[in-house]
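dude i think i finally got it to work??
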Amino acid sequence: MKKTIAKKVKAVALVLVMGAGVIGGFAKIAEALTITSVDPEKGPVAGEQDVTIKGDFNQDMKWKQVAAGSGYTCAIASNDQAYCWGFKAYGQLGDGTNTGPEICSSYYYECSKTPVAVLLGDRPDLTVKQITASERHTCVIASNDQAYCWGWNSHGQLGDGTNTGPEICTLSTPCSKTPVAVLLGDRPDLTVKQIVAGHYHTCAIASNDQVYCWGENGSGELGDGTNTHRYTPVAVLLGDRPDLTVKQIAARYAHTCAIASDDQAYCWGYNHYSQLGNGTYTGPELCTPSTPCSKTPVAVLLGDRPNLTVKQISAGEHHTCAIAGDTRVYCWGTNNLGQLGDGTNTGPETCAFYVCSRTPVAVLLGDRPDLTAKQIYVGHYHHTCAIASNDQVYCWGLNGSGQLGDGTVATHRTTPVAVQLGDRSDLAVKQISVGGAHTCAIASNDQVYCWGDNSFGELGDGTDTNRNTPVLVDTSSLPPATYTVTIDVGGTPALCTGVVIATDGKSLKCTTSAHIAGLVDVTVDDGVSAKTLEKGYEYVRDGGGGSIIKDILSPDTGVGRVVGLLVLGEVVVVAVGVAIFFKIRKEEFR
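look at this
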């Protein structure tokens, strides 16, 4: 249960948001929030006016961020809680178990085919700000700006100071089935700004803009100058560039990358396939006699484009991609399945056992050279996806399970292909995440769609059937979307209470509260986005319907003068349903 949050503001009032009812059941329309009109358009300053607001008011749970792991998926919902689905034998779903509620595929894997809530244990007051999913463990940044992890803990990747528990999961492996706090050791003063999970290691950017990593370190992926496993965070050593800070990080199988404050990319860890992008696959060091690596960050070499900067970076198992300052995508590392997107799967070079590129090569956009890239995500294994400037998703590389989303299976692609949205071609895409052999995205209606391998229920559609085009994640077992009021202390808010949503989700009804006269903005907030109809309603003194309440809030001081309606203290918002507030425009007082 999300804890009620009290916010201090200058103009103070006690605000209670009424719970939302639904006429005839939940509206299953999966549309983005919109407001088109208010009927009637005016009413008395005394309030108590029933109004109908028309638009799209979807009751399905909405999503803020999605993170695809290997065989499972997690996401943050509009109620700021985390939910996961898919493979759960190692406790990576965080619901307190590693068994059931279902068995997926012919392999008899423990799974959940639809989202289950992550249990925050002794911290139910916390909400979730960011989530990352990996091979078999998951981590979040909570509302207290601290990191929490759960799942497999064989190499200390949970950061709780051990590699032996705190519990035991499948095949006697150490794990935690619910989140445990990452221990910051001698830096308890630090908070966490970004977190990423590799296969068996984890890294974070702390509030001092430095990177700290923990977990497996056999290939130098922790960047601390050693190849010793660490059970709590250690600082990444920036070598001869201690002046640099870090803006973004990415991690996967056994290497880690970052964008530093000079807008250049740096990588460290395993380098057998040139995934570090430093022009070699034999070093610069050896972590074992047969493991080329770098134990500290090395600069990615931009070849014939040394003037380029880097805007975003993403790491895969054996390849890495970035969006450069020219908004184009460049990739490096192994290329045996076309995962570099340069139109080949034959080079341009050779690294160890596979064809590769030892430095970045440009991804070819084929018949859409006009497009640029807004977001890039490299999968756990051998495929890559990007959101282009037209807000559509394009993928390339391995397609053995339909993870490219182009309607085919086993047709690998050496250049980007468009994901087929079928009968929802009207949707744009806001965020993507690429797992082991599946892909997920949040569309413009704030719903999650997934495609590719579904052996573990990782697509969340209630089945374990693979899909080669996107399917909607099933939220029918989850609570309805949580709506809250945003109080603008510069205006004079008043609630429209007793909200009831129509069955078709195309309108809602509520009752106005008392307010001073004037034109007001009507705002609805669904927890992910807020929409405002400017000057959508007018309070009038001759509107009838009860006594006239004058000057509820003084336009000069913003201080309440009507005892019982306003109190000194804090604004309290109870977020259990839809709420609408009317914001007065002070220049239009009558």
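The longest strand covers residues 530-540.
im so relieved honestly
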